[in-house]
Amino acid sequence: MDAAYLKIEKTIDASVILYKVPSLFPKVDGTTAEPTGITGSPPPQRFITFLIISTLNLGFIVGTLFLVMLFMTQKSYDAIEVVRFLIQTLLGVTAVYNVCFDYTMFNYHELIRQMLSDAKKLRTQVTTPNNNPSKMQEFLWTCLLHELFFSAVFGVCILPIAPFFLQEDPVYFILKGLSPSSGFENTLAGKLLRSLTGGVLGYHWLMGGAYISATGMELAYLIPEILNCIVRDSRRWFRKCLRHRYICFSLLVHLCNNIFRWTLAVTLGGVGGVVVCGISCSIKFHVLVPTYILVAFLIVSLTMIILIGIILPNAASVHELSIEYVDTLKARALIRTSSRLEYDIRISRATQPISIECGCFTTFDKQSILIWYLAVLEQTVNVLLGF
C-alpha cells in the first residue's frame, strides 16, 4: 500500500505542468522542510496563477448558476434542453466542490504535508515493519489508483475538445447570452476561447481533485491502521505508551477534522450530484448524447463511486475502533486492584471515542456508506421519473 500511494503521488506531482499548484504530499524521506532564505525562515510560496484560475472558477459557477436558473423558470422544455440542464448542473457542481479544494489546498497545504508526515511516523511507531509486502496487493492498488487518476484525465480531456463539435458547454451559452446577435460563440475565435476556458478549468479541477482525493485516501488508509494497532496492543495488555499513542492519534484526527470536515461534507454532496446527473443522462438520454460524452459520464461516475467506496468505510472504522479501545480501558479498570482502581477509573473516564467529522452536523459511522449510496440511488430515480 505504501509503495502504491508513493507511486500515485509521484504521478500527480509530475502532472503539474501548466502552473504551480500547492503540493499536499511530504517528501519521500518524510520531511516537509522548505528551502530557507537569508533569515533562516522558509520563503513564502506564491501561487498567483492558481488564485487567478480559482477566481475564474468562481465566475464559472456564477454563470452556470444563471443558466440553471433560466432553465428552472421555463414552463415547458424538450429532451435536448433536459440534457443541457444536466450537463450544466454536472459541471457547475464540479466547480462548486472544487472551490473547497482550492481553499483547503491554498490555506492548509503546509499543514496537510506535516499531518501526512506525522501520520506515517506514528504508524511506524505502532506497527511492526513488514519486510515481505505482498507484491500482488501492491500491484493491484497501484493499478487501481492510477486507473482512477487517468479516468479523471480522460473525462477532463473532453472539455477542451467538445466546443469544436458541440454547443453544450456553459461558456457557449454565457457568450451567447452576453451578445445574442454577434454569433461570436460559433466562430473559430469563439470556439478557441471556449476550448481554452474548458481546458484550463478542467486541468484546475483535475489537479485539485487528484491532490485532495489522494490525500484523503492515504489518510483513510493510515488513520484506521494506526488505531487498529493500538486496539490490538490493548487487547494484549501492552500498556506501555498506549495512552500516549492514543493521545497523539486523537490530536491527529482532531487536526484532520479541523481541515477537512467541510471539504468532506461539500464533496460528498457534490460527488453525489455528479453521479446523479451523469448516470441519469447516460440512461435516459443516451440517444441524444454523443458516444464519447456518454463514456466520459459513465467513467467519471464510476470513479466517484469507487472513491467514496474507499474513503467512507475507512473513515467509519475510526469510530468503531475507538469505541472498542475505550471499552477495553473500562474493562481493565474493573479488574484492577484497589491501589490502581482509582487511577484506572480516571483514565477510562478521560478517554473518549473519536471519529471523523462531516461538517458540523454528523460523524461517519458504519452506515454512512449505505446512506450515501441509497441517497444517490433515490435522487437518480427521481430525476429519471421527473424528466
UniProtKB/TrEMBL annotation:
The answer on whether this UniProt entry bears the keyword Zinc reads no
Q: Report if keyword Metal-binding is assigned.
A: no
Q: Which UniProt keywords apply?
A: Membrane, Transmembrane, Transmembrane helix
**Annotated transmembrane regions:** 47-73, 85-106, 139-166, 202-223, 266-285, 292-312
Q: Which domain of life is it from?
A: Eukaryota
Question: What's the protein called, per UniProt?
Answer: Gustatory receptor
Q: Please give the organism.
A: Folsomia candida
